[in-house]
Amino acid sequence: MNQLTEPRRIRTVDELLLETRRVIMMMMTDYLSKWELAEEDEEEQDEKWDNDPSSKEKWDNETAEQDDQE
Predict the structure, then answer these.
(1) What gap in Å lies between CA 1 and CA 7, rounded to an integer?
(2) What ranges does the record list as Basic and acidic residues composition bias (predicted)?
C-alpha cells in the first residue's frame, strides 16, 4: 500500500519531537563532518604553501581573477 490508500495514523507530539530530533542530529552530524574535512584540507594547503610559496602566489592570482570575473 502507498500513502494515498492507507489510512493516516495520528502521531503523538512525542513521536513528532523524536523524529524532529533525529533529523536535526543527522543534519548536524553531516555539517560537522564536512566542516572537519574542510579544516583538514586547509591544513594540507597550509603545509603545501609552507613548502612551496610560489603555489600560494599562483592560488592568490587565480582567486583574484575569479573575483574579477564575478
Answers:
(1) 10
(2) 48-61
Angstrom distances, CA of residue 40 to CA of 26, 44, 45, 58, 63:
21, 6, 9, 21, 20
Q: Are 32 and 25 in contact (CB under 8 A)?
A: no
**CA–CA dist 41, 47 (Å, integer):** 10
Distance CA 28, CA 49 (A): 31
Three cell numbers, residue 47? 603545509
Give the model confidence (pLDDT) of 35-46 as tens digits: 888 888 888 887
Asked if 48 and 55 touch (Cβ cutoff 8 Å), the reply is: yes
Three-state secondary structure call for residue 9: coil
